[in-house]
Amino acid sequence: MQEAKRAVVLFSGGQDSTTCLYWALNQGYASVHAVGFDYGQRHRIELEQARIIADRAGVSYAVLPLPTLAAIGDSALVGPGDVGQTDRAGLPSSFVPGRNLLFLTAAAAYAYKRGATVLVGGMCETDYSGYPDCRRATLDALQQAIELGMEYPIEIVTPLMYLSKKETVELAYSLPGCWEALAESHTCYEGVRPGCGRCPACVLRAKGFAEAGLTDPALAGT
Amino acid sequence: MQEAKRAVVLFSGGQDSTTCLYWALNQGYASVHAVGFDYGQRHRIELEQARIIADRAGVSYAVLPLPTLAAIGDSALVGPGDVGQTDRAGLPSSFVPGRNLLFLTAAAAYAYKRGATVLVGGMCETDYSGYPDCRRATLDALQQAIELGMEYPIEIVTPLMYLSKKETVELAYSLPGCWEALAESHTCYEGVRPGCGRCPACVLRAKGFAEAGLTDPALAGT
């Protein structure tokens, strides 16, 4: 019975998680809550836009503090004498692996406290940059660990997992209210509203809308 | 080759993790690091004693901030209208399920940054109060999720998993340097040094030493 389930959406205020939020609102869950993380993101505008979208959608929005990521990514903490795994892989030294594992586990504990059994996340294997913590096989293993570790049924649902960026845009277009909300969603790495148009995130977003043959609602008024 | 591996010990400064720290130092790992979490524990003395023991053992000790737990446990955040799963189970409303999943996942990311592949934790199925996130089956699933999510080999090692409190005391007694370090380890829920002697944690600790027929070194001078 879908109706009896409560859902928590991992919500950053970006294009993908905004689409997931409206996807969840369209599933007939008993309730939908949004949860985000304050991990010291470069631009606070991400959290502000998330709040605007959650308010518009009429869902509760909790921001959980997670300074752990920045502490782990702090090279001063790790120390210069250590093996720089991340440097080897050509990633910035502040890169913290498996951060979606932390986000999902914390969100699961939050869901438990709210009596929700569904976690909805915008992880995607298709167009993504290949982060292993976005893959379905990872999430299946994590779901099992959470279920065993909390003795509580948790289902990690990922509606965008096998969609291209084009298909994600089309999904958003089909969901009531989502298109208007996307106008408020934030993507740009530079923290510019509605977007600098040049950073990798802006370029990827633009590509999806172009392939779908639709104008990004965030840019419609510009 | 055990010699080539680096280990990170989840270290709270308590009896069990102190024993784990010295167990790890006795395994011939290339290096041993201690990591703890500042999650707003009731008594800061726990972190202070952990620092003293890590210094004595000659290992680095990083404290990662994890205010996420307190935020999730905050009933004001969860809201009064929600299902109180924890209340049903007779647990305090501040209880956060699966916290060892968060500790271990964050520790794994920290280990990755240090080039360590072994996580040592004091989880125990035997005398423990039955928390499901301390069970080996949970940790096996989590290990798989971490390995997949970080694309990095992580081994969660739990030397106390199947030991009774008596056997843990005997293990500590057999490890060079551990017994003296245990004098500094902190257990008491009331934050009293060396222990109030009446709280459940003090009572459980005393039981282990009594059954082993040994005097708790923390009490030896009192």
Write the layout of secondary structure elements.
The structure is a homodimer of 222-residue chains.
Chain A: E1 6-10, H1 15-25, E2 31-38, H2 45-57, E3 60-65, H3 68-73, H4 75-78, H5 85-88, H6 99-114, E4 118-120, H7 136-150, E5 155-157, H8 165-174, H9 178-182, H10 200-212
Helix pairs in contact in A: 1-8, 6-7, 8-10
Radius of gyration of chain A: 17 Å
Q: pLDDT average of chain A, as an integer?
A: 90
Task: Summarize the main sheet of chain A.
Answer: 5 strands, parallel
**In sequence order, what are the helices and strands of chain A, one letter per element?**
EHEHEHHHHEHEHHH
Q: Most extensive interface: pair and counts? A: A-B, 51 and 51 residues
CATH fourth-tier homologous superfamily of chain A:
HUPs
Task: Name the strands of the widest sheet of chain A in spatial order.
Answer: 3-2-1-4-5
Q: How many separate structural domains of chain A? A: 1
Low-confidence blocks of residues of chain A: 81-88
Overall 3D shape of chain A: globular
Task: Please provide a written account of the structure.
2 copies of one chain form a homodimer. Chain A has 222 residues and is α/β, with parallel strands linked by helices. The longest helix of chain A is centred in the middle third of the chain and has 16 residues, at 99-114. Chain A has 10 helices and 5 strands; from the N terminus they run βαβαβααααβαβααα. Chain A has a single domain, classed as HUPs (Rossmann fold). Chain A is globular and about 50 Å long. The termini of chain A are far apart. Chain A has a 5-stranded parallel sheet with strand order 3-2-1-4-5, sandwiched between helices. In chain A, helix 7 (136-150) links the parallel strand 4 (118-120) and strand 5 (155-157). At the A-B interface, strand 3, helix 3, helix 6 and helix 7 of A face strand 3, helix 3, helix 6 and helix 7 of B.
